[in-house]
Known about the structure:
The protein is mainly α. It has one domain. The protein is built from 17 helices and 2 strands. Helix 3 (38-61) runs parallel beside helix 6 (99-110), helix 4 crosses helix 11 and helix 8 packs across helix 10 (208-231).
Amino acid sequence: MNSQTAESIVARPDPASQERTWIRQAHSMISDLMQRSPAIYWTDLLLSAGAAWTFTVLYFAAPLGSVWQIAGLVLAGILFYRAGTFIHEIVHMGRNQMVWFKRAWNLLLGVPLLMPWLLYRNHIGHHSRAHFGTPDDGEYLPLASSPLHETLKYLVQIPVLPLLALLRFGVLGPASHFHSGLREWLLTRASAYVSNPYYRKRFPRDEEWHLTLMEWLCFGWLMALLALTVFGPMTGTHWLMAWILLAWTLGLNWIRNLAAHSYANRGQPMSHVEQLEDSVNISGQTWLTVWLFPVGLRYHALHHLFPGLPYHNLGKAHTRLVSGLPDDSPYHRVNRDSFFQVVGELLRSARSTSGDASAMTAWRASTR
């Protein structure tokens, strides 16, 4: 080996070192924004949840099919979606951080909507270098690397989501305590909030007591509603209306999720920066962005770069990074103008993918 070749090898930059340097630079620019403000969290949650329940009363009390009832449904769903999104902030908090906020969230939303935050603990794996973008990631489906019918299959699940929650907490949860085999199946297959139906991971044993408590609270809530149906004012129409409201609420997040990532990875583990580049910031300030991406969800790429950054500081951090980082920084490549731009890219990629080239094959194989 001649001296010129040796010098070129020594001078060649190390990608891992470059990645660490770039991330440290970005972190130094926003390090003062990492502190959560409990006052902002509490105010936002209480106002959002309070307004959601107020419009729910309007929805159920207004004449059937009236403008007031439709307005109640639309606004209640949007506000429940906003308040519900705090589940994402909760799972990124330390075990002993804002404990009463977590309890209040379960009281206001988790139990009555059959979505206790504990079942979202699996979200931490979504940030893992080993799992992100693979079949072991509960929140990743390779929709852009699979035929278009896979995206359609994803969307048609929306009306079923409330029914699955009802089955999980109203039937399977209580029954599983009397059958060990069913219990293990439930803890492995139906105890995590995921969009990836091929996800398989057992619920943590050290948290089972907490899950059991949440299961019985949700079951007690359902039994109270059943009693009101048998002996009180509730009717089958009210149950139908509740299903519509929950499907609308959950559907908003299901649709928003299409613009969280590129969903083009084919199952290979990804580095921290590769996770960032697969994620999306919606930088356009439109009414749809504000409505469909509450509680900082519009800065999803930034969240994957710094998962501990509180939602109320994401906008300020984004502004600093956009203005302070070099134009060739990876951060500038993750910004999109609108939801429609991101989903359009996904759909175009899906339309050009044949069944033989579908990345979903690897996801299905993971369950065998």
